[in-house]
Design a protein that fits this description.
- It is a single chain.
- Strand 4 and strand 5 form a beta hairpin.
- The protein has one domain.
- The strands form 2 sheets. A 4-stranded mixed β-sheet has the order 2-3-5-4, sandwiched between helices.
- The radius of gyration is 25 Å and the shape is globular.
- It is built from 13 helices and 7 strands.
- Helices cover about 65% and strands about 10% of the residues.
- It has about 350 residues and is an alpha/beta fold.
């Protein structure tokens, strides 16, 4: 049990350092893409989160060639009780327990969605056809959508992947035609892009890395870029300023509250960033700049995953190092002894 825990903690510490570096690079490079190419930024963040799953697996399947360990001086400052095998077992148990808690949270969110759909009121066949026709004009896959209204909602919510439901607030019949068309375009974009399924996948990755701030940052960036991508697509049917006005009206009706079902966010989330992106007078950047930023993120992902032979560890063990390891203190002592000898 101790050996398994040691391996688990070692893989987690190595992957955590690489994931933090990867998320930092991706965050710096995708900031400019959020306004110029939000759909591309969203897909890049999805790949970054996928790397969060691949890093521990690749580390487990490959053997270390270079092991970078904490120096003896650093390790001596750590309390002895935290360096015992029992502490490693405790750390592994904490990682697994936290992941289990977040898995339960996801399951609870799915159950809440099912209850929300079950408690929603159906709309008439004529209204169904009207809404579906309006959505099909803006979406490639809106013919799969089903529509209902729920008095507990103040903003539209799209749930499901194979046969998605678009759930509308009870007062949707009083909306101006332009607002209803904008909502159908936005929700249809979520359906076309598969954002619901991507949200579940991101939530699962965050459950695995619940203790790592980089995972929370990556999921937050993924959610924001998804909303920006759908806003960019929906705003194409009218002026961006008019669409921003619809977004503000919906946010005001929601009273600033967020709609959460385990991982999903309502239309009021990240409102300021979304409105700023819509009102940006120069949303489109040069194609070369977009390509360079995307290529740099892709290279960072590839290099991070390819760095499996370089292993970072928080413990002073060399039993799984196939090649050699770096030890700054040992190197310093060796140089000092050599000078003293001469």
């Amino acid at each position: 049990m101790s050996d398994v825990s040691h391996t688990l903690v070692g893989l987690a510490s190595d992957a955590a350092i690489k994931l933090a570096a990867l998320v930092l690079v991706a965050d710096l490079l995708t900031r400019g893409l959020n306004r110029s190419a939000p759909a591309l930024a969203n897909r890049l963040w999805l790949v970054v989160l996928s790397a969060g799953v691949l890093l521990p697996v690749i580390g487990w399947l490959t053997q270390a060639a270079v092991l970078i360990e904490p120096s003896a001086g650093v390790l001596n400052r750590v309390p002895t009780g935290l360096r015992t095998p029992s502490s490693t077992v405790f750390a592994a148990a904490m990682l697994a327990s936290g992941a289990l808690v977040f898995m339960v949270r996801i399951t609870t969110g799915l159950a809440a969605i099912r209850r929300l759909v079950a408690s929603s009121d159906g709309v008439s066949r004529t209204e169904q056809e009207t809404l579906r026709g309006m959505a099909i004009m803006q979406s490639l896959r809106a013919d799969r959508c089903r529509f209902a209204s729920n008095p507990s909602l103040s903003v539209p919510v799209t749930v499901g992947h194979w046969r998605p439901w678009v759930l509308l607030p009870a007062d949707w019949r009083t909306w101006p035609a332009a607002r209803l068309a904008a909502v159908m375009a936005h929700e249809g974009a979520h359906v076309d892009r598969g954002d619901y399924l991507a949200g579940i996948a991101a939530a699962l990755v965050r459950a695995l890395w619940w203790w790592h701030p980089a995972a929370w940052v990556a999921v937050s960036r993924l959610q924001l870029s998804a909303e920006l991508a759908c806003d960019a697509r929906a705003s194409a049917i009218e002026s961006r300023a008019d669409y921003a006005g619809h977004l503000l009206d919906l946010a005001q009706a929601a009273g600033g509250h967020r709609v959460r079902f385990g991982w999903t966010l309502g239309a009021t989330s990240r409102l300021r960033e979304r409105v700023d992106a819509l009102l940006d007078e120069h949303p489109a950047a040069h194609r070369l700049a977009i390509s360079v930023r995307a290529a740099m993120v892709a290279i960072a992902i590839v290099l991070t995953c390819a760095a499996a032979p370089i292993r970072f560890t928080l413990s002073r063990t060399t039993d799984f190092a196939a090649g050699f390891s770096f030890d700054h203190d040992a190197q310093h002592d060796s140089m000092h002894a050599s000078r003293h000898h001469h």
